[in-house]
Amino acid sequence: MKKNLFSLMILAGSMLNAQVYSNGNLSTGSTSSGGTAAPAGYTWSEVQSPNTTLGASAYISSAADFRLADDFVVPSTERWDISSVDVFAYQTSSTTMPFDALTLQILSGPPPSGAVVFGDTTTNIINRSATADSKIYRTGSTVNTTRKIWKVNGNVITTLNPGTYWLNFQVHATNDGAAFFPPVTNVGVVSPPGANAMQMSSTGWAPLMDTGSSTAQAMPFIITYVATSLGTTETRQLDSRVVVYPNPTQSTFRLSLPAESLGAKTEVGVFDSAGKKVKSFKLAESYDVSDLTKGMYIIKINDGQNIKATKLIKN
């Protein structure tokens, strides 16, 4: 799913700082559509009807070999020095981290024809010290906590020039069993704009489609990098626990935030595509943007420790 999120850059200073690129949301909030609260400290990633796919297979075992791929864009004015990539996976009923391997490639085009820019399909690049509980449970309309999602971190050290690239990845489970990757999930959205993820199975590569709605899907992943550009950068964190809704909106929006961002000092800023702040709020139940023109904006949540960012579309 091609995104540059306006490069998530602000003209602020002269230092090069670590950036985080996110390919899409996963959390749908701490309360399910049926009113069930998630366990303390967790949120749900609830399948949006009529979708039915809980997770897409991407694993190697003695019985199967599946991979997933999705795209991203390095903007024309930037060069990215990448230090890591995170993908999100679960193994049903696993309560401890079930994965011991991650293989990942970066391709210059969609598989199987895209040229390899980084990595291969056999070298294990998992960083177990940075692989962690994502604090999200994947669930359907009947909620349960049998699908704990893990953020699987991989050591990816490479530099990318401007262009469109594809991540191609899979994991291996310690019990040699199946592993599943939940697709990008937004409240009320069946297929994210620009969704074009692909899946490899025994029959080759094919578009990843939800089995219930037959719509194209996108895969969430996070890339940590330092951008070199003509401008300057601001340290930014895209956190999949941050949810803005409704999105798109015509007038107001709400935020679902992790506990560490719910303090009295938290400030919420709305920025246009040029990086100009157009609205500023204290932490509140809802935020009025009815006076803004239609378009895409970046929401920044500054809790005094981190600046978390997400995207808002104004209709």
What features would you highlight for this structure?
315 residues, mainly beta, Immunoglobulin-like, six-stranded mixed beta sheet, disordered N terminus
Question: Your description of this structure?
Answer:
Strands 1-14-5-9-8-2 form a six-stranded mixed sheet, with no helix packed on it. Strands 7-6-10-4-12-13 form a six-stranded antiparallel sheet, with no helix packed on it. The protein has no helices and 21 strands. With 315 residues, the protein is mainly β. Mean pLDDT is 87; it is low at 3-17. 0% of the residues lie in helices and 42% in strands. It has two domains: 5-234, no CATH class; 242-315, Immunoglobulin-like (Sandwich).
**Number of structurally distinct domains:** 2
Spans where pLDDT lies below 50 across 5 or more residues: 3-17
Give the distance, in angstroms, between the N- and C-terminal Cα atoms.
21 Å
* Largest β sheet strand count, sense and barrel closure: 6 strands, mixed
DSSP summary: helix tally: 0
Structural class: mainly beta
Range of helix content: under 10%
The percentage of residues in β strands lies in 35-45%
Number of beta strands: 21
Evaluate the radius of gyration.
19 Å
pLDDT averaged residue by residue: 87
Quick one: overall form? globular
Written as H for each helix and E for each strand, in order along the chain, the element string is EEEEEEEEEEEEEEEEEEEEE
List the strand order in the largest sheet: 1-14-5-9-8-2
Please provide a brief summary of the model.
The protein has 315 residues and is mainly beta. 0% of the residues lie in helices and 42% in strands. It has no helices and 21 strands.
